[in-house]
Amino acid sequence: MLYQLEGSHAIARTVALCRPGVVCAYPISPQTHILEGLEELIRGKKLENCEYLNVESEMGALSVAIGGEAAGVRSYTATSSQGLLYMIEAVYNASGLELPIVMTLGNRALGAPINIWNDHSDAMSARDAGWIMFFAETNQEAADLHILAFKVAEKVHCPVIVNVDGFILTHAYDRVDIPSQDKVDDFLPPYAPKASLDVNHPVAIGTMVPPEYFMEVRHLAHRKQEDSLAVIECTAHAFEKKFGRNSGGLLRRYGSPNADTVIVAMGSVAGTIKDAVDELNQEGGQFEELSIICYRPFPAEALRNSLKNAKRIIVVEKSLAVGIGGILSREVELTMKGCDVDVITVVAGLGGRNITKSMLKECFNKKSHEKITFLGLRNDIIGKQYVPINGDCC
Amino acid sequence: MSHLTIGNRLEKNVTAQSMYDRSNSLTSGHRACQGCGEALAARCILDAAYIATDGKVAVINATGCLEVFSCVYPENSWQIPWLHSLFGNAPAVATGVAAAFKRQGKENVRVIAQGGDGALADIGMGCLSGMFDRNDDVLCVCYDNQAYMNTGVQRSGATPAFSRTATTLPTGDYLGNDVQTGKNLPKIAMAHGIPYVATASVSNIHDLEKKVAKAIHLKGARYLHVHVPCPLGWGYPTSETIKVARLAVQCGLFPLFEAERGKVIKSTPINAPLKVEEYLKGQRRFAHLFGKNASSDALITLQNIADDNIREYALVGDPNE
Ligand SMILES: Cc1ncc(C[n+]2csc(CCOP(=O)(O)OP(=O)(O)O)c2C)c(N)n1
Ligand code: SF4
Ligand SMILES: [Mg+2]
């Protein structure tokens, strides 16, 4: 049924339809409304048989989810930014223990300086943590991705982070279809754990692994993620069949097929980029937009196939690896190794900086780009503040 | 009544450890040092919990000696459902397990979180306090060997005054770990008003088992703090673990008591308290307090701590009569 909902509430209602048995909550903007929403649904008996735990920190939140999942119960939490950093040790632990927890990340910048607004720095800090990572473009997709996330996670025994742009999606009201409980139950059967804490079949989970076996553990984790690509695609098809709309999967393309210039991005900024691409194409240009929905495992082959005719790839990314530059753009560049194509890094929207259609159009229309473009950078400030460091050693 | 006797003890008084069919929750083959108090206490506690619950117990272990020596893949000494996650999160993981068991209607499976003094007094104190605050259905056991043993005997928040550790080496005027208020975990636990807090010593297995058997069935958050000497970290012969543990109790430095909802309800009397020197002098970690450069001030300070305990917990005479 269609509702006019805040993104966070659409997510909360969809998560509730997935019937988690353990939900752990710790507040941090912009994720907080999701867990408040779930609280309300649980107290109001809209979600039954669920333990809702107000914990003392994000480390506690993910650790409780680890325990819940290890004892065989579907477990969920959500966080943002500093919260993700605070729990990062448990983030690596959950994937190492192969526990299919689903966590929403309401994407927000990392401090210092403290900043509560949206960018993807938090997600990037967990990109190598062994979780599957999805990025939502719209509120509808943000909600749907959670159903897909539980399904995929439990199939491949790997936790999933659903990235949802803070404020831009979490706090925006939009029309969202919330599916019926029957349909979700049909799509997502009860959780069957791989190995759990069971007195009838005692196992030791999380033992120390010495050098003779550790490399194999990591190798297998990598193989598992690579194999998950097919599962993610197939699950998205099954979702479309069941729910009648396209959500999730690996990539999504929009605009002129086989255009010279392809703009690659993740998350909600795709909406603005599509508008820019539409106008540029109406003005006689040849532009295509490509969203990476599944960022981990990285869909290298699908991406390479989609980009094989491009002459120019502009990666618009909401994060910056200080000391090297783009993160997503490096990964795209590596994927396109050996192809005759320019990969251009456009860092945009850091700490919630506006990304407008006109800024994007101007950027996409440029004939040549610098090594790295900071979209909308205030050069007046940089001019005053930047003092080159003298190259002497003392 | 059957008078099966083991050694010279009547059945009624038999410990889980002396039963011929003991459960061996932590079985042989692990890699603890000879004479490890922590290994011994863990086996006693978990066997007692196993027997009291008819085998319905699951354990969440923090990183530390107990975890490292018991499970190096592909070997593993645990015969009960067991999980190790991280150094600082065992109580929170246990909360999740207890919540999941509740959802599955398996509240009869009792959940134990366990770790060292470092895991619980220091890095995991937030998670521990949160578990207490929510009164989650978890028994947390702290194996207090008074330092970070697994990483090579560094100071923890539970290291006693004047103790020599790798990070509090007595040198010149510096007499080892500073005298400070310290982190008294049993008292911190009691301040949360949780249903049950107890201290125990690996030198008194009967008392230890009784406390476990009681604690394991209580609902809500429970805390058991066990004094476990470490021959490697404390510097005494491996054959003397029980003796060292007993001396700590008998001099008053480690009082044995039980508390309910924040109030001490019972303590174990020590009839003729020994001087703290009797406990300290056999351990290398306190050796600098004796001999040529002996510090009588330090010994007086430690004796005062013991005397305060004796008064506070009414250890002399039987306080229950
Ligand atoms: C986050 C983190 N910091 C540090 C360590 C290193 N470390 C592992 S065990 C340990 C000490 C454990 O001390 P304690 O909890 O007292 O247990 P013990 O080994 O003394 O039984 C430390 C510091 C770690 N594993 N994780
Ligand atoms: S160092 Fe101490 S606590 Fe660790 S295994 Fe050896 S005796 Fe036991
Ligand atoms: Mg210790």
Comma- or semicolon-separated keywords:
heterodimer, A: 394 residues, alpha/beta, Rossmann fold, 2 domains, seven-stranded mixed beta sheet, six-stranded mixed beta sheet, 41% helix, B: alpha/beta, 11 helices, disordered N terminus, binds thiamine diphosphate, binds iron/sulfur cluster, binds magnesium ion
SSE layout and pairings?
The complex is a heterodimer of chains A (394) and B (321).
Chain A: E1 2-6, H1 7-17, E2 22-25, H2 32-43, E3 51-54, H3 58-70, E4 75-79, H4 81-86, H5 88-96, E5 102-107, H6 121-125, E6 132-135, H7 139-156, E7 160-165, E8 173-177, H8 181-187, E9 204-205, H9 211-243, E10 251-255, E11 261-265, H10 269-282, E12 287-292, E13 294-296, H11 300-307, E14 312-317, H12 328-335, E15 342-347, H13 357-365, E16 372-374, H14 379-385
Parallel strand pairs in A: 2-3, 2-4, 4-5, 5-7, 6-7, 11-12, 11-14, 14-15, 15-16
Antiparallel strand pairs in A: 1-8, 6-13, 10-12
Helix pairs in contact in A: 1-2, 1-7, 3-5, 7-9, 10-13
Chain B: H1 37-52, E1 57-61, H2 65-70, E2 82-84, H3 90-103, E3 110-116, H4 117-123, H5 125-133, E4 139-144, H6 185-191, E5 196-201, H7 205-217, E6 222-227, H8 231-234, H9 241-250, E7 257-260, E8 263-267, H10 276-280, H11 296-312
Parallel strand pairs in B: 1-2, 1-3, 3-4, 4-6, 5-6
Antiparallel strand pairs in B: 5-7, 7-8
Helix pairs in contact in B: 1-7, 3-5, 4-5
The complex binds thiamine diphosphate, iron/sulfur cluster and magnesium ion.
Iron/sulfur cluster (SF4) is lined by residues 32-33, 36, 38-39, 65, 69, 145, 149, 230-233 of chain B.
Describe the protein.
The complex is a heterodimer of chains A (394) and B (321). Chain A has a seven-stranded mixed beta sheet, sandwiched between helices. In chain A, strands 10-12-11-14-15-16 form a six-stranded mixed beta sheet, sandwiched between helices. Chain A has a two-stranded antiparallel ribbon with strand order 1-8. The radius of gyration of chain A is 21 Å and the shape is globular. Chain A is α/β, with parallel strands linked by helices and 394 residues long. Chain A folds into two domains: 2-243, Rossmann fold (3-Layer(aba) Sandwich); 251-383, Rossmann fold (3-Layer(aba) Sandwich), CATH 3.40.50. Chain A has helices at 7-17, 32-43, 58-70, 81-86, 88-96, 121-125, 139-156, 181-187, 211-243, 269-282, 300-307, 328-335, 357-365, 379-385; strands at residues 2-6, 22-25, 51-54, 75-79, 102-107, 132-135, 160-165, 173-177, 204-205, 251-255, 261-265, 287-292, 294-296, 312-317, 342-347, 372-374. Chain B has eleven helices and eight strands. In chain B, strands 2-1-3-4-6-5-7-8 form an eight-stranded mixed beta sheet, sandwiched between helices. In chain B, helix 3 runs parallel beside helix 5 (125-133) and helix 4 crosses helix 5 (125-133). Chain B is globular. Residues 38, 63-66, 87-88, 115-119, 143, 145, 148-151, 156 of chain B line the site of thiamine diphosphate.
